[in-house]
Design brief:
- The protein starts with a helix and ends with a helix.
- The chain is 48% helix and 13% strand.
- Helix 2 packs parallel to helix 3.
- The protein is built from ten helices and eight strands.
- It has 312 residues and is an alpha/beta fold.
- InterPro entries: TAT_signal (IPR006311), TAT_signal_bac_arc (IPR019546), Xyl_isomerase-like_sf (IPR036237).
Amino acid sequence: MHQNRRHFLKTTATATAAGLLIPLGEIAAQEIPYVKAKAGYELLFMATDWGFPGTTDEFCALAKKEGYEGIEVWWPGDDAKAQENLFTALKKHGLQVGFLCGGSQSEPAVHLNAFKKNLDAATGNSFQKPVYVNCHSGKDYFTYEENKLFIDYTTKKSKETGVPIYHETHRGRMLFCAPIARNFIEKNPDLRLTLDISHWCVVHESLLADQKATIDIALERVSHIHSRVGHPQGAQVNDPRAPEWDGAIKAHLAWWDKVIERKKLKGERMTILTEFGPPDYLQTLPYTRQPVADQWAINVYMMNLLRKRYQL
């Protein structure tokens, strides 16, 4: 009898969870007023290779099969073979590309020089013009003046090349928290953002309801979104389809909705990277390190949900 009860509870819980996944997504996709888009509005979804175990060609093939328009990857640096493999796969599978650029050096001048080298190569490559470049800019412990040099350089480079260049709201980087980002926004009118607001949820240990004015200012500068969902205790919920994260999902959708509405009204391109990451972003079971959810499936789910929500 004890075994039967345990089996009943297990199967009932599994069935209940499975039954909740899709309806939540369907409901979320409908909870937005219709906004007529002006000519020029375009929605591109990008796939991340973060955590993908296969080759570049396999990654691009799968991204194309799932319905992504492009991919976002780190610029391969001086690795000629990696560059060849990447651009061959992009051409073969008909995909757009956005590049990540950054630096890791602790000394500001050395860091900036490495950043410039990567950015110059990514924007000036002779194979395929990127849709955008997303920057992991500076460090949270650099001074305002040291970090501003990254903005000054990307502003100049974007005007020279015609490639949009964005700075990501990322922990450990220049725009690691909301009030610091606001200071940069107010003093640098050409600054454009990649919004990964999940980082700010962690830094401020909240869903940012007490910083609405600052968040609204930031949303006006967003041109690219990393659609990972965070919460007050972490940068990634374990599975956005699970009902316990309904509040976090709705908060992120409300922020993204404002960006999309502005893009539609202006008739501008909008790019979205589905960026739920692998372990240790994705939680695992202790000892076995077995992931508690399927990273790739979650990202495809987010793409389909947001495409339905933000289509013309």
